[in-house]
């Protein structure tokens, strides 16, 4: 059931996070939106409210552990509990290693890995205490196989895969009933390509997405399905992408 569930979404200001927030709210979920662009969050939350849904928002930089704790606190203060967290914030500045985009490498690790760790560190005590909860995370098809240009980005998404699987296993062993769901999208039309600083990689990705990209609502539907499943059932992994894309 999605109705009345309190769901935190990181990276909710555009793309997959925004589409998921709008969909979950339309199904009666109480959504808590986090990202750095507060103006965008305000607009999305107002839209949701105008459509009869419930949304609150707060500035969130996932690289800052205090921000992650604060958004969990916002959810509790606003709605009294937390049922799920969608760890979705991410960047994808792909480039060949030979381009030595070292700053991009570190920023990608900080947001895509440390950001996930900060989110889990903030929510785990809550879920352990209530012996229920769901952690969802956005990996990528680049977290399932190696792509040129994706050594670092792909590495962060392989990390998410392993981390989420161990979270699922340990939760089952410890009896905390935490459902762990990882999604592996292929080309989805969002603002993600804006994070690519290497000109050659940006052009190649632009062409790939122009040819194959599908709407972020497709991913939102899968996230909604995973949250909607009965509490005794974990929808563990989903790979989702354009029918035309040969991966
Ligand atoms: N689009 C695809 O083809 C695709 C494929 C596979 C996986 N993914 C993954 O899907 C996730 C969502 O990306 P998207 O495609 O929806 O792209 P997007 O439209 O660029 O959304 C990325 C979101 O992450 C947020 N974000 C970035 N850095 C952040 C930080 N430090 N703290 C908090 N939020 C931050 C952005 O918000 P602010 O800039 O406002 O902070 C934005 O809301 C990412 O993890 C991405 O790797 C996407």
Explain how this protein is built.
- One of its GO terms (molecular function) is serine 3-dehydrogenase activity.
- It is an enzyme of class 1 (oxidoreductase).
- This is Serine 3-dehydrogenase.
- The chain is α/β, with parallel strands linked by helices and 247 residues long.
- It is built from seven helices and seven strands; from the N terminus they run βαβαβαβαβαβααβ.
- It has a seven-stranded parallel beta sheet, with helices on both faces.
- The protein starts with 5 loop residues before the first strand and ends in a 7-residue tail after the last strand.
- The mean pLDDT is 97.
- Residues 10-17, 35-37, 60-63, 88-92, 111, 138, 140, 185, 187-188, 190-192, 216 line the site of NADP nicotinamide-adenine-dinucleotide phosphate (NAP).
Number of helices: 7
Query: Would you list the SSEs in sequence order as H and E?
Result: EHEHEHEHEHEHHE
CATH topology name, in short, is Rossmann fold
What is the CA-atom radius of gyration, in angstroms? Answer: 17 Å
How many separate domains?
Answer: 1
- From the spread of the alpha carbons, the general shape counts as globular
List the uncertain runs: none
* Bound ligands, named by name, code or SMILES: NADP nicotinamide-adenine-dinucleotide phosphate
N- to C-terminal distance: 32 Å
**Residue share in β-strands:** 15-25%
Would you identify the CATH H-level superfamily?
Answer: NAD(P)-binding Rossmann-like Domain
- Structural class, from helix and strand content? alpha/beta
What's the level 1 CATH class? Alpha Beta
Helical proportion, percent range: 40-55%
The strand line-up of the biggest sheet is 3-2-1-4-5-6-7
Mean model confidence by pLDDT: 97
Total E-strand runs: 7
| Most strands sheet | 7 strands, parallel
The CATH architecture category equals: 3-Layer(aba) Sandwich
